[in-house]
Design a protein that fits this description.
CATH superfamily of the domain at 144-180 and 262-389 and 476-508 in chain B: D-Amino Acid Oxidase, subunit A, domain 2
Shape of chain A: globular
Distance between the termini of chain A: 69 Å
Number of helices of chain A: 13
Structural class of chain B: alpha+beta
Distance between the termini of chain B: 37 Å
Keywords (chain A): Ubiquinone
Number of strands of chain A: 0
Number of helices of chain B: 19
Radius of gyration of chain A: 21 Å
Number of domains of chain A: 1
Helix content of chain A: 55-70%
Protein name (chain A): Ubiquinone biosynthesis protein Coq4
Largest interface: A-B, 7 and 8 residues
CATH class of the domain at 144-180 and 262-389 and 476-508 in chain B: Alpha Beta
Number of strands of chain B: 20
Organism (chain A): Lipomyces orientalis
Radius of gyration of chain B: 26 Å
CATH topology of the domain at 144-180 and 262-389 and 476-508 in chain B: D-Amino Acid Oxidase, Chain A, domain 2
Largest sheet of chain B: 9 strands, mixed
Oligomer: heterodimer
Strand content of chain A: under 5%
Helix content of chain B: 40-55%
CATH architecture of the domain at 144-180 and 262-389 and 476-508 in chain B: 2-Layer Sandwich
C-alpha cells in the first residue's frame, strides 16, 4: 500500500506534500515502467533518432525495440513459442543468459565449431559480456516482456549461427534476418533506416547479397526464438543450421577484404 | 364423437366403397371401434373370395388413424398431444419404436448419475409440455433452469451476456436443462395416465421393415394409405403416417421428400461432468473456438452437461483420453488461449497436461472464475463421453399425401443454440392444431391439403432458426483475422444494445419467431 497524504494538515500543505506517484499505474512486473501511448511514441522517436546517429548505443536500440513493440506482434511471437514444445519450456522455465548462468571460460575450451565456443569467441573478441544486455522496462505484458528479453539475450547466438560479424553491415544484415524471422518492428526499422548511413558500395552489397539472403532464410527457417541455446552449447554449428534451415551467408569479412585488395 | 357418424369423413375414408358397405359400416358407430374390430369388415367381405377376405382381415386389424414412427421426444409428444386434445383423443394411434421402451418407462433415476443426452427446453416448449400434462410427470429435481447465459469468442475474447432482464418474463428462466430420458419417461407416464379414447398402441423393439402403399380391396381402396411391414411380421396401415424417426428418416425416404443441407465436419462430444463446487449461479456458458463451440450447461447439484463441437479427429482423441486429462482439457478450453489449447490437445500424458494447464491457469485473474468462465470441472462421469456427427438438414416439404414429418426427420440443426428439441416441439404443437381443425371440420386428417397448413406454418420458422444457427456456426468457425475483427465489433455492438439483446432472447426463448 502506498502511504496516503495526511488529512490533518492545511490544503496547501497537502498539495505540496501530495504523493504524485499515487497516480502512476502499478507495474506489471519488477522493473516494469508503465507508459502510455504518447510516452511510448516519445521514447521511440528519441531513442530512434539518437541511435541513428550513434549505432553503438545498444541501450537506446533496446528502448526503441520496446517502445515500438506492438502488442499483437509480441503476442504473435509468444504464441509461436507457446505452440512449440521447446519454446513453451523456455517460457515456463524463463532461463536468463548471464555471465553467471553461462561459464564463458569453459565455453572457450569446447571443440571448434561448437555453438558454445563460437558464442564465447564472439563475446571475447567484441569485449562484451551477456550482462551488458539491458532489462526490459517498457513492454506492458509480463510474458511478452520476457520474450523480448529472451530475444535480446539470444541475439549474440544469432551472430554465432549465421557467422555475420559485429560490424555495422553484419548487424544490419542480421537485423533483416531477425525481422523476417521474428517480426519484431525494431529489427525492421533498423534494417531499413541504418543503411542510410552506409557508403553506396556497402548499401549495394547489402541490397544484392545480404538482404535477399536474410529475407529468404529468416522467413523459411524455424523460429530461432524457440532454440534452447543453453542446452545445445556443445552442438556443431553446421548441424544446427541444417536443422533450423539456415544457409550460411557469404563471408562478409572476406568480401570486404577482397574489395580492399582490389583497390 | 366418432368419425363414422360424420358423413363427410366417411366419404373420404371409404373411398370406392359401395352403398351396401356404407350401410353395413354405419351401425358400428364409433370410428375407432370399427377400425379395431375386424369382424365387421370380414362380414362384409364374406361374399368375396377367401383370399381377399383374409388379406383384408389382416389389414383392418392393423388399421390406424395415426401411426407414429419413432418413439423419441417428438414422436411421443405428438402421441400425448393428440391423446390429450378433446378433438383428437378418439383417434386410433400406434407408435413404432426400434428400441425397447420398457427401461425408459420404469426409469428410476440415481441422483448421482445424469444421462449425457440432455436438451435445453425453452419456456415456450416447457409451457406446451405442461399444457398437455407432461410436465407434472417430469422429475423436476433433475431439471435445472438457468437464467444467465455467457457467450464469448475464444479468439478475440469479445463477450456477450444475457440474463433474465433481457427475457422480460416473470421468473426469468432462459431455458431448462433436462435429460432426454427424463422427458421420454414423463411422456410415457403421461400416455399411461391418459384415459380418454382408445389407448395408444406402443410397439417398441420393433423396426419398420418396409413401407409400401396399401392394396385396393373390393370393399375399400387403401392404395393411398401407407402400409408398414414391421420386423415382428405385423402390418400397420395408416390414415396418417408421422415420421418422427430422426435424421435418416425411413418415412421421409418413402415419401420421397428431398432433404437438403450439409455436414459440418464437426462432431458433438457430450459428457456428464461434476464441477469442483456448486456455485449456484445457474449460468449457461459457451465459448466459440475455431474448431467449434464448447458449451457447459448447468445441471442440479453442481453437475453439468458438456457439448463440445469439435473436429472428428479431436472428438475421437478427447474420448480416448483418461478422465483426468479430459477434465483438464475441458477446463483449458474454457480458460486458456487457442495456442495453449491446441498444444494441450496434442499431448497425451495426463501429468504433463495437468502441469502445463496449472502453469497457464495460474496466470489468469482469480476473480474471473465463475464470472468470465465456469468453475473447474473435476470429474467426468464414467462412460458418459459420446460423440455424434453434426449437420444441417432441412426438408423441402414436411408433408406428402397421408404423411407428415416432425422433429429431426424434417430438420436437423447444430446444437450451438440448443434449439433442436424445441423446433420439434413447435412442429408437434402446430401439427396437432392443424389436425384438431381438420377433425372439427370433418376433413380427412391424412389429406395433403389439410397437412399443408402445418408445413406452411412451420417451414419459415424452422428455416430462419436453421439459417441463423448455420451462419453463426460459419462465422465463428474461423480464426481468419479480418473475420474475427468484424464479428468482434458486431458482438460488442450487440452487447451494448439491450433492446437488440431482448429481441434475440425472445426469439431464442421461442415466444415469437417471425
Amino acid at each position: 500500500m502506498r502511504p496516503r497524504v495526511p488529512t490533518n494538515v492545511s490544503p496547501c500543505v497537502r498539495l505540496l506534500k501530495r504523493n504524485y506517484t499515487y497516480n502512476t499505474p502499478i507495474p506489471n512486473y519488477p522493473g516494469h515502467v508503465p507508459t502510455n501511448i504518447f510516452q511510448k511514441l516519445f521514447l521511440a522517436a528519441g531513442s530512434g533518432i539518437y541511435s541513428f546517429f550513434d549505432p553503438t548505443r545498444g541501450d537506446l536500440i533496446a528502448t526503441l525495440g520496446e517502445a515500438t513493440a506492438l502488442p499483437f506482434l509480441m503476442e504473435r511471437l509468444r504464441d509461436s513459442m507457446l505452440a512449440d514444445p521447446t519454446g513453451r519450456r523456455i517460457l515456463r522455465e524463463r532461463p536468463r543468459i548471464t555471465s553467471s548462468s553461462l561459464h564463458i571460460d569453459q565455453l572457450l575450451e569446447y571443440p571448434e565449431n561448437t555453438i558454445g565456443r563460437t558464442y564465447a569467441e564472439w563475446l571475447k573478441r567484441e569485449g562484451v559480456s551477456p550482462d551488458t544486455r539491458a532489462p526490459v522496462r517498457y513492454i506492458d505484458d509480463e510474458e511478452c516482456a520476457y520474450v523480448m528479453q529472451r530475444y535480446r539475450e539470444c541475439h549474440d547466438f544469432y551472430h554465432a549461427i549465421t557467422g555475420l560479424p559485429i560490424i555495422i553491415e553484419g548487424e544490419i544484415a542480421l537485423k533483416m534476418f531477425e525481422f523476417a524471422n521474428t517480426v519484431i518492428p525494431m529489427t525492421g526499422i533498423g534494417a531499413v533506416l541504418a543503411p542510410l548511413r552506409l557508403k553506396p558500395k556497402q548499401r549495394e552489397r547489402l541490397r544484392t547479397i545480404y538482404f535477399p539472403w536474410a529475407i529468404k532464410n529468416g522467413a523459411s527457417a524455424k523460429p530461432l526464438i524457440n532454440v534452447y541455446w543453453e542446452e545445445i552449447l556443445d552442438r556443431d554449428v553446421q548441424s544446427l543450421r541444417e536443422e533450423l534451415g539456415i544457409e550460411k551467408p557469404p563471408d562478409l569479412r572476406g568480401l570486404r577484404k577482397k574489395r580492399i585488395s582490389r583497390l | 364423437m366418432g368419425f363414422y357418424t360424420r358423413h363427410a369423413t366417411l366419404r373420404v375414408f371409404v373411398r370406392g366403397c359401395n352403398a351396401a358397405l356404407y350401410r353395413k359400416y354405419r351401425p358400428s358407430s364409433r370410428f375407432s371401434s370399427s377400425l379395431a374390430s375386424a369382424p365387421v369388415a370380414g362380414e362384409t367381405a364374406s361374399g368375396n373370395s377367401d383370399k381377399t377376405s383374409s388379406a383384408f382381415d389382416t389389414i383392418t386389424s392393423g388399421l390406424y388413424d395415426v401411426v407414429v414412427v419413432g418413439g423419441g421426444i417428438s414422436g411421443l409428444t405428438l402421441a400425448v398431444s393428440l391423446k390429450s386434445s378433446q378433438y383428437t383423443s378418439h383417434l386410433k394411434i400406434a407408435l413404432v419404436e426400434g428400441m425397447p421402451l420398457a427401461s425408459v418407462k420404469s426409469w428410476s433415476p440415481d441422483p448421482d448419475i445424469y444421462s449425457n443426452r440432455v436438451s435445453s427446453i425453452t419456456p415456450a416448449s416447457q409451457q406446451y409440455l405442461s399444457q398437455i400434462g407432461v410436465w407434472d410427470h417430469v422429475h423436476t429435481e433433475r431439471v435445472q433452469a438457468y437464467d444467465d447465459m455467457r457467450v464469448w469468442d475464444g479468439v478475440s475474447g469479445a463477450r456477450i451476456h444475457f440474463d433474465a432482464f433481457h427475457l422480460g418474463t416473470d421468473d426469468g428462466t432462459i431455458a431448462y436443462m433436462t435429460e432426454n430420458l427424463n422427458l421420454q419417461h414423463a411422456l410415457l407416464s403421461r400416455l399411461d395416465n391418459l384415459s380418454s379414447g382408445p389407448p395408444v398402441t406402443i410397439l417398441d423393439s420393433t423396426k419398420v421393415a418396409e413401407i409400401t402403399n396399401g392394396h385396393e380391396f373390393d370393399e375399400v381402396d387403401l392404395s393411398s394409405w401407407p402400409t408398414l411391414k414391421l420386423s415382428t411380421g405385423d402390418t400397420l396401415t395408416a390414415r396418417l403416417l408421422i415420421g418422427a424417426d430422426g435424421v435418416n428418416s425411413p418415412v421421409r425416404a418413402f415419401a420421397n421428400i428431398q432433404s437438403r443441407g450439409w455436414d459440418y465436419n464437426q462432431h458433438g462430444l457430450v459428457a456428464s461432468l461434476e464441477m469442483e463446487w456448486d456455485d449456484r449461479q445457474r449460468i449457461a456458458w459457451q465459448r466459440f473456438l475455431p474448431t467449434g463451440p464448447i458449451a457447459l450447461l448447468p445441471m442440479p447439484d453442481g453437475k453439468a452437461s458438456l457439448v463440445w463441437s469439435t473436429t472428428p479427429k479431436y472428438a475421437a482423441h478427447l474420448k480416448s483420453l483418461s478422465a483426468g486429462a479430459f477434465c483438464t482439457l475441458v477446463n483449458a478450453a474454457f480458460r486458456l488461449g487457442m495456442v495453449d489449447l491446441d498444444y494441450l490437445i496434442s499431448r497425451v500424458d495426463e501429468e504433463e497436461i495437468k502441469e502445463d494447464f496449472e502453469w497457464r491457469d495460474a496466470r489468469l485473474p482469480a476473480e474471473a472464475e465463475g464470472q468470465q468462465f465456469p468453475v473447474r470441472v473435476v470429474e467426468v462421469q464414467e462412460g458418459s463421453r459420446a460423440s455424434f456427427p453434426l449437420r444441417m438438414r432441412h426438408c423441402d416439404n414436411y408433408v406428402a399425401p397421408r404423411i407428415a414429418l416432425v422433429g429431426d426427420a424434417a430438420h436437423t440443426t447444430h446444437p450451438l443454440a440448443g434449439q433442436g428439441l424445441n423446433l420439434g416441439q413447435g412442429d408437434v404443437s402446430s401439427l396437432v392444431r392443424v389436425l384438431e381443425r381438420a377433425v372439427q371440420n370433418g376433413s380427412d386428417i391424412g389429406d395433403e391439403v389439410v397437412l399443408q397448413a402445418y408445413w406452411a406454418e412451420r417451414y419459415p420458422v424452422n428455416h430462419v432458426m436453421l439459417g441463423v444457427v448455420d451462419k453463426l456456426q460459419k462465422l465463428y468457425c474461423t480464426d481468419f483475422p479480418p473475420i474475427v475483427g468484424l464479428r468482434t465489433v458486431g458482438l460488442e455492438i450487440v452487447e451494448s444494445l439491450d433492446w437488440v439483446k431482448k429481441i434475440i432472447m425472445r426469439q431464442a426463448a421461442g415466444s415469437s419467431v417471425l
